[in-house]
From TrEMBL:
Segments traversing the membrane: none
InterPro entries: Histidine_triad_HIT, HIT-like, HIT-like_sf
Domain HIT: 10-117
Motif segment (Histidine triad motif): 101-105
Pfam families: HIT
Protein's UniProt name: Histidine triad nucleotide-binding protein
Domain of life where this protein originates: Bacteria
Length: 117
């Protein structure tokens, strides 16, 4: 069924506590934890507890959870005292997506270039 945990999904395993992670925040619908390979002083992944392969699929199926996710990214940024930050949804392998469970990268704590690479 849509949104159900996927036994082969790394992020579903993190939510289930089967793979360890440094958890930053948790709500009924979202989970936020530090990226294992940080690309900035703050690099937190904010994910829905429901499994959807990417952000657009999540947004089509679960608009409220998508809003929760974006709000949580802002709450984490505030807790990390970030005045400026970037929220990135890599979508598709050509754009660098490697884990096919929707996730926002929250990046901050250093200067950012535009356009991104
Ligand atoms: P993406 O490449 O956009 O799909 O992002 C996946 C992210 O998950 C990468 O930034 C990885 O560094 C991160 N990652 C992979 N495995 C883990 C893990 N066990 N704990 C935390 N972050 C992870
Ligand atoms: Zn998953």
């Amino acid at each position: 069924m849509a949104g159900e945990a996927n036994a082969d999904c790394l992020f579903c395993k993190i939510i289930a506590g089967e793979v360890p992670a440094t958890v930053v925040r948790e709500t009924d619908t979202t989970y936020a934890f530090r990226d294992i390979n940080p690309q900035a002083p703050t690099h937190v992944l904010v994910i829905p507890k429901a499994h959807y392969p990417d952000a657009a699929t999540l947004a089509a199926a679960e608009p409220q959870i998508t809003a929760d996710l974006l709000r949580e990214a802002g709450v984490v940024a505030a807790e990390e005292k970030l005045e400026s930050y970037r929220v990135v949804f890599n979508t598709g392998s050509g754009a660098g997506q490697t884990v096919f469970h929707a996730h926002a990268h929250l990046l901050g704590g250093r200067g950012m270039q535009w356009p991104p690479g």
